[in-house]
Amino acid sequence: METDRIFVDTNIIIYLTQGDENVVEIIQNKDVYTSFVTEIELLSFNFLTENEQLTITKLLNDFKIVEYHSSLKNIIIDLRKKYNLKFADSVILASAIFLNIPFVTSDKKLKNVTETDIILYEL
Length: 123
What we know:
Elements: E1 5-8, H1 10-17, H2 21-27, E2 31-35, H3 36-43, H4 50-61, E3 64-66, H5 73-83, H6 87-99, E4 103-105, E5 118-120
Parallel strand pairs: 1-2, 1-4, 2-3, 4-5
């Protein structure tokens, strides 16, 4: 697995927007990838202030957003079947697997995934 690239889950970006210095350290000097699903999740919270939405948008502009591609379909299906994951989690994780880069998350139910390196961030 490459170490100069990293794929982050939605929860990691939320911690980053809250100023979590440990997350900053994890992603520092890395090409950071995330999924279009994460972008949708973050920007569709109905309680976001205009300032929070702007902060998230600016942050996402610094990341590489992975869009849906048909190559992800079978990976998504396999993940859902094997790990009983929610659809959004499967799409996000499938993107990291497809790119063959480590996936950073605080979602403990993903720690057993063996198809990519999972970096479990614990608060």
